[in-house]
Amino acid sequence: MLETAPFLFEDFSNKDKIMQRIKDLPITRNTVKSRILKIAENKEELVKLVSLQETTKGTDICKAVVNTLSEANVDFSRIVSVTTDGADQT
C-alpha cells in the first residue's frame, strides 16, 4: 500500500500527512487476525418462536418458517440458507 500511496494521493495537499498515517497503522499479524475473526463471527437473531402443532417434519418446519418470515416482511431473496437439526423431509 505504501508504494502506491504517492500516486494515489498525488492530488491531495496533505499527501505527506496521509502517507504518515498509513505508515503508523498498527498492522501486525495479531491485528489482522483479530479483524478477520471479528468479521467471521456468526450473528444470530431471533425472529419468533413458533410451536409446531402436529409434527416436526421438514414440510411443517418449512411452512412455519415461510409463514413467520412472511409475517415479519422479510425479503426472501435475501435468505441465504435455513438449517434444521435433521428433521424428516416427508
Automatic annotation (TrEMBL):
<protein>
    <recommendedName>
        <fullName>DUF4371 domain-containing protein</fullName>
    </recommendedName>
</protein>
